[in-house]
Structure formats: C-alpha cells, structure tokens
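We keep the chain:
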Amino acid sequence: MAPTSAPQRTHERSPSTAPKPAPQVSELRVSRTAPVGRWVLIIAGGYAAGLTASAFGVPAPYLLASLLVGAALALCGVVRDRLPAPAGRASQALVGALMGSYLTPAALVSAAPVALPMTVVTAATIALSVGVAWLLARRGRISRPAPSSAWCPAVPPRSSPAPTS
C-alpha cells in the first residue's frame, strides 16, 4: 500500500475544544434547587417545631423553632440546596411581617429604659461581625466579598479560595 498524504492526527486539543474543568461542589450547591417535596417536609418540620415551642411558651415560637430546624438541617448536610428565589422572597416577607407584628407602642415604651444598652450591644455585635468577616477574608480560605455578601439576602455568598499574597 502506498502511504497517504493525509495529515496525521494529534491528540492535542485547541483551547476552544479543550474540556472545561468540572464545577466545584460549592458552585453546584448555589445553583441547584431541591425538589419541592423536600421543601414541603422542611416547612412541615418547622411548623411542628413551632407548635412544640409554643406549647413550652417560647417567645416567637414559629420563628425561633423554624430557624433552629433550618440551621440544624443545614449543618448536618441534609439541606445543601438553595430555596427557589420566589419562595425565598416570600419567606423573607413573612419573617419581616412577623417581626413587625411584635413592634407595638407598648413594646417601644417598655424598651425605652434599656435603649442605650441595647444600642451598645447592637453596635458591638456589628463591630464583632465586621471583625470576624475581615479575619475570615484575610486569613481564611474564602474570597473577600464572601463574608460581607452573606449579610445581603439577595447575594449568595461565594466560598472560593482567596488569592494568596
């Protein structure tokens, strides 16, 4: 057989056809939404916890118990997905309405004597939070915007490694 003049194929790929790296696990968590059934079970669990807390006389039982259930599920790794955006906005509106319902003129009058200590504690909490966020960004393995964007409900926090300098 005669040799052909066809160019030989190489196994090198051009930059446009090179495979893209797989997304990191943290990126998948942020962009994916969980099935509706799981969220229904989580909401039912929060409601049940609120009923239990109400029976024990806990103040704001549905708010506090649901927060504890959500935090426990997230810390245990049961919930890794984001709540769908419309449901997230609706839940923030409900929490805001619930918090506003506790703000009555009688509550303001009773809080007046402790307004100064409450303001000092609030300012100290904010200062401590900013300090921890700065330390996490400076010494931790997270990006600089991540600690501050976690405060904003509309901005999902990023946990990509911070550049080393």
User: Anything to note?
Assistant: The two ends are 61 Å apart (CA to CA). The helical segments are 25-31, 36-55, 61-76, 85-101, 105-111, 115-139, 145-149.
